Amino acid sequence: MKTKECKIPEATIKRLSTYINCLERLQVENHPVISSELLGEYCQVSPAQIRKDLSYFGEFGVRGVGYDTKKLEAEIKEILGLNNNWPTCVVGVGKLGLALLNFALFRKHGFSITAAFDSDPAKVGTELSAGITIQPTTEIEQTVTGKKILIGIITTPADAAQKVAEQLVAGGIQGLLNFAPTKVKVPEEITLRNVSITSELDNLAYLMTQKRRRS
Amino acid sequence: MKTKECKIPEATIKRLSTYINCLERLQVENHPVISSELLGEYCQVSPAQIRKDLSYFGEFGVRGVGYDTKKLEAEIKEILGLNNNWPTCVVGVGKLGLALLNFALFRKHGFSITAAFDSDPAKVGTELSAGITIQPTTEIEQTVTGKKILIGIITTPADAAQKVAEQLVAGGIQGLLNFAPTKVKVPEEITLRNVSITSELDNLAYLMTQKRRRS
DNA sequence: TGGTGTGAACAACTTCACAGCG
DNA sequence: CGCTGTGAAGTTGTTCACACCA
Known about the structure:
Two copies of one chain form a homodimer.
Chain A: H1 10-28, E1 33-34, H2 36-43, H3 47-55, E2 67-68, H4 69-80, E3 86-91, H5 95-101, H6 104-108, E4 111-118, E5 127-128, E6 132-136, H7 140-146, E7 151-154, H8 158-171, E8 175-178, E9 191-194, H9 197-214
Parallel strand pairs in A: 3-4, 3-7, 4-6, 7-8, 8-9
Antiparallel strand pairs in A: 1-2, 5-6
Helix pairs in contact in A: 1-4, 2-3, 7-8
The first copy, chain A, binds a DNA duplex through helix 1 and helix 3.
């Protein structure tokens, strides 16, 4: 056992998240116990990789048997901090913003969206599900502070992203997930992830072009 | 010069995509030429990394000066294969699907969405912008074949994703981008990328939990 | 016996440091 | 003189192979 809580590869964290999804599916399909071999097949990761990933955090398996799916899922959620409740808000209620607001999996992972903002006066005042009403972006700072919101999801157009990020920071946000197609800059005490949807497609185009050129 | 077209790190490809975005912004902001130093600041990548990334594909800069922003953008687009026209379709016209259908940046990168499918009879027949009408998922195979669609974007719920993937493959698709929160499996000649939105948030939660525990 | 946990070998990626050129 | 292009050094992440234990 090591349980050294530092120097964990970022890639490991990314995979932990996919293990959760697979473990949920495995429970539904009535697998109370699973080996790293089979789990690897399910989530397309090598068995050695899975064992290594888990070994950073402790010993969760039983030798000669495997892992208890339910227990392991709970352990990973604990590791990732998904057992907390994370008050979250969305800025930019376009199609993408709405998609995220309605995304059931978020709630299951501990993220509860408690506010939504948009700069369009026509949208402001619209009641979304569960008592959330779209507020104007001018109220970002005070609402984030008042509701103690910790995570902000930015789904605005590129040109609004930086300003919105600054408003969220001013309100005391601790983490930001930015879907706008431009990178935003925030003070380094804020945890930030820039997600680029286009780059995924670009990547696909590159791989396909390679295959085409090779043949 | 090397121009060895193999063994390019996947991370490099991901970054090329972000360079394009920055270069576009730089042109708007009237920078005809840029050094790796400054470009690095813009897209939050080290200057050495940028030079190394580009050196895999050729020599695009002028020593003592820097890179021509416009030319470099064009070169990178060529490298990624974004100067082709990629006929693309979307399966699953929920909020996320609609967001992608309306995403202007896709067209700029050469992806033209030419069909949309949904299993909900209430949605079938709805005309989206530019002459695209939502078709039933039963027509996936024949439409993909008929319109010679090369890329499929899956934005269905998890339980429909695998079946949809198989229908797209049957129609002759060459690349798949899967947004459904489950991994799909396809023959290995198909280029596949699974995108997990939840895992981005999970990642954020982990990083924030770490910070909290440390302090 | 069978599958985990893990150090040690290996592979991939990033940074350094400086030669080379406009 | 300044900034690119790049081998070589350093760092980070993955796979191997086997000890160990239910």
